[in-house]
Amino acid sequence: ASALSISVSILFAFFVNKLAVNSAGGFFTNDVYLTATSTTANGLVRYSATDEPPTRNSPVWVDGAWGRSGPLKLKAFRDGFDDSETTELTFNFKIAPPVLWPPGPAGPATKSNQPLSLRIVSGTSNVAFYWTLGSAPPTQASTLYSGPFQLGTNGIVQVRGYKEGYEDSMLVSATYNLVVSDVTITPAGGVSTNQPVQVKLET
User: How far apart are CA 48 and CA 29, in angstroms?
Assistant: First the structure.
């Protein structure tokens, strides 16, 4: 009797699991520390910051700070495996409104015998602030803020912040009206004397 031969075929389908990402995107005023990991061993994560999905030729993803507005698409690859699903995120980064300190007076004029020292602060880090004195709003060709500066004349100070990958900050302005401090006369009037009096004027 002839031997019975049985042929068995087994089909394997290997695929890379969908990525685990620690952010869902959204609106931010500072960079986000972003991680993207594959639960499939030896899965290599690649990304695209355009509307096109990542391919095996796209840049390799490295966990770190992300601060670029727009789409971010991530996908994991492994030789011999089907690619993972594409993870799609959308980020909107905008510079927090700059703050002038001290703020422009809302009431009486600021009295000072010295130039006023102004600072610019913001809730967003690593921002380039540009400012002007007058009616023209600042651009990136205006004066770059590098630290507290002296304001020695009346006028409108206007500030705007710029950072690559971020939407420009809103325009912030403050009006400063500096006047010389009141004069002090020493001694005060009303003194009766038969001798000459030396009068001192100070501001």
Answer: 22
- Tokens found for residue 119: 């600072």
Measured CA to CA, the distance from residue 146 to residue 69 in angstroms comes to 26
Distance of CA 95 to the CA centre of its chain: 4
Cα 83 from Cα 70, distance rounded (Å): 24
Residue among 91, 92, 165 nearest 127 (CA): 165
- H or E segment at 130? strand 128-133
Q: How is residue 133 written in tokens? A: 């004195």
pLDDT, tens digit (0-9, with 9 covering 90-100), for 75-115:
999 999 999 999 999 999 999 999 998 876 654 455 556 67
The SS3 assignment for 42 reads coil
- Predicted TM-score (pTM) above 0.85: no
- Both tokens assigned to 99: 């703050």
Q: What is the Cα–Cα distance from 91 to 11, expressed in whole angstroms?
A: 41
> Residue 122 and residue 99: Cα distance in Å, rounded?
6
Residue 197's identity, in one-letter code, is V
- Number of neighbours of residue 148 by Cβ within 10 angstroms: 10
Q: Which two tokens stand for residue 65?
A: 């700070």
